[in-house]
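Example record used in the benchmark description.
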Amino acid sequence: MKVTQHLWFEKDMEAAVRFYTSLIPGSAVDWISAIPADSPSGPAGTVRLAAFTLGDQRYMSIAAGALDPFNHSFSIVVECDSQAEIDRL
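Model output (structure tokens):
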């Protein structure tokens, strides 16, 4: 099982992720992608996701606009190795 921090950005997610990974040795942007379908946060292609590593810690992030003037969002994403792990959680 792996636990990944998930950061929510109103804007400039890609710039922030690239900046963070430039600061810490052994860091990298793993991927950046747009959500292909409409969502409550915006039309297809406007909501962006990224996965990146800072040192030995994995992160994910989303650029999906603000839900309020200050976004209090924070998620923990758990990657499971099997359906049994998913069922247990």
